[in-house]
Amino acid sequence: MLGARLARRILFPLLALLAVLFVLLGFAAVGIAQKRVDEELNDAADRVAATLAALPMAPEHRGEILPAVAGLMGCQIVLGDYATDSSWTPADLARIQGGRVTLQGRAYTTLVRDLPAPWGSCATLFSRERIARRRKDVLVPIALAGALGLLAAFAISLLAARRIALPVRALAQSAARFAQGRFAGDVGPRGPGEVGDLQDAFVAMARQLREG
What we know:
alpha+beta; 2 domains; 67% helix
């Protein structure tokens, strides 16, 4: 009976708290993964712009240099009227601005960076499909680490609660024996802190009752 009450008062609240923490962990992990991937995309766009700005590139050399840079960075690049994806039409290029865009049935995230004259700016496009895969790769280890941490904390809390629950249960059984006039027997394993002090008091009381 006492064990069931202790389970309701200790174990069930711990389980409810664990469930809430898992939900909060999920939201936090998604946010962290999103932020990290956004930082990676911005860093890649900055490197593309810095690379293009450092190259003494004439317009006729774009077809040689831009595909190599795009392949290295894992993106598509639009510079002026040239795009590394040759399937894009002038109408497609006119739609490219910062943010999301769908070209030839594929969704992209576009980041625009300024370049020195005569280019003005370049657009770096990252496949949304590839971004989703990268976000998942970042999210999984974060979520696993957080889940393991929560489970470890729950296990420690459960062990601590058990250290208190077992001595309290033994004390309740001892009190029931005392009420029947049976003062022999111990009061179970000694509990921590005040629980242990209470057990010592029970033992002293039982000794006095036996001797009296």
